[in-house]
Design brief:
InterPro entries: LigD_pol_dom (IPR014145), NHEJ_LigD (IPR052171). This is DNA ligase D polymerase domain-containing protein. With 293 residues, the chain is α+β, with helices and mostly antiparallel strands. It contains six helices and 18 strands. Strand 1 and strand 2 form a beta hairpin.
C-alpha cells in the first residue's frame, strides 16, 4: 500500500519483468512514473488519455485502450469525449496518484490529443509534427529535417520544442492560440508539403507507407481531433527495453550524429530532469502561444 495525493493505492506484481531485454520490472517503471510525475502531469492534465496496455509486459499481449481500464479507482477523473457514434468517457490524468493508478493497471504507455477536454476537440492549443524515418533512414535524418522545420515555424511566429518519440522519430510541439483540428492539421500538412518541395528526395507527406523508403515522413495527421500522440515522458512499449518520449534541446538535435545520442531510458530521463528540470515547461505557458498564420 502507498499513499499519493491523499489516495491509497495497493500496488501489485511489483517483481514482474516488463522488459525482458533490460530486466526492468513493474516496480522500476512505477518508480520512474512517480518521480517524473511533476514534469509529466502538466503535459497530460486536462486531456483525455488513452493507453497502450501490456499488463504482462512487452513479451505478451498489448492493446490500445481508450475507455477506463477495469479496476480504475473511482476518484480518478474521467472526461466526456465526443465521437461520431456518440460520447464516451476517458481517463484524465490530473495528478501523480492518477498516473500511478493507471500504470498499476498495466497502462504503461500514455497518449493524449492536442486539445483540452474543457475547451473541446475543436480548440487545439498545441501543434504537433511527427517526423518518422522511413526504411533506410534513422533519427539523424529526422534531426536534420527538424532544424529546417524549426526555421519555417519560427518565420510564422511559432516556437517549436523537440521531443524524441522514444521509438525511431522526433516530435515537434508548438503552443498555439486555440484553433480547430482541421486548421492545425492543414497547417502542418502545408508545412510538410513546403519541405517536400524543397527536398523531394528526402521528405514525404503522403500517408501511403509504400512511399516512405529512404525518406522522412512528416506526419501532420496527428493534429486531427480524433488522433493522439505519445505523451511527453511516457514509457514506450515498442521494444524489449524501455524507451521514453523525452524532451531534448535544440543543441542536442543539432549535435546528433547517431540515434544512440538521443536514446534515453527511464533512468537517464530522471537524471536529466534532476539536472535540468522540465525542458518542455514553456509548452504549457500561455505567454508563448502564437496564432496560426
Amino acid at each position: 500500500m502507498v499513499e499519493l495525493d491523499g489516495h491509497r493505492l495497493s500496488l501489485s506484481h511489483l517483481d514482474r519483468v516488463l522488459f525482458p531485454g533490460s530486466g526492468h520490472t513493474k516496480a522500476e517503471i512505477l518508480r520512474y512514473y512517480a518521480e517524473i510525475a511533476p514534469a509529466m502531469v502538466p503535459h497530460v492534465d486536462g486531456r483525455a488519455a488513452s493507453f497502450v496496455r501490456a499488463p504482462e509486459g512487452t513479451a505478451s499481449e498489448s492493446w490500445i485502450a481508450k475507455t477506463p481500464p477495469n479496476g480504475s479507482p473511482g476518484w480518478v477523473p474521467v472526461v466526456p469525449v465526443p465521437h461520431r457514434e456518440g460520447v464516451t468517457e476517458q481517463i484524465m490524468i490530473d495528478s501523480a496518484a492518477a498516473l500511478i493508478a493507471m500504470v498499476n493497471l498495466g497502462a504503461y504507455e500514455v497518449h493524449v490529443p492536442q486539445w483540452r477536454a474543457a475547451a473541446g476537440p475543436e480548440r487545439h492549443d498545441r501543434l504537433v509534427v511527427d517526423l518518422d524515418p522511413g526504411p533506410g533512414l534513422d533519427l539523424v535524418a529526422c534531426c536534420r529535417v527538424a532544424q529546417r522545420l524549426r526555421q519555417l515555424l519560427a518565420e510564422d511566429g511559432l516556437t517549436p520544442y523537440p521531443v524524441v518519440s522514444g521509438a525511431k522519430g522526433l516530435h515537434l510541439y508548438a503552443p498555439v492560440h486555440p484553433a480547430s483540428g482541421r486548421a492545425t492539421a492543414g497547417y502542418a500538412k502545408a508545412m510538410g508539403a513546403r519541405l517536400r518541395d524543397e527536398h523531394p528526395g528526402l521528405i514525404v507527406v503522403a500517408m501511403a507507407k509504400a512511399e516512405r523508403a529512404g525518406k522522412v515522413f512528416i506526419d501532420w495527421s496527428q493534429n486531427a481531433s480524433a488522433k493522439t500522440t505519445a505523451a511527453p515522458y511516457t514509457v514506450r512499449l515498442l521494444a524489449d527495453r524501455p524507451g521514453v518520449a523525452a524532451p531534448v534541446t535544440w543543441e542536442e538535435v543539432e549535435a546528433c550524429t547517431d540515434p544512440a545520442d538521443l536514446a534515453f531510458g527511464p533512468e537517464e530521463v530522471l537524471a536529466r530532469f534532476a539536472a535540468d528540470g522540465d525542458l518542455l515547461a514553456d509548452l504549457t505557458g500561455d505567454a508563448v502561444r502564437a496564432a496560426l498564420p
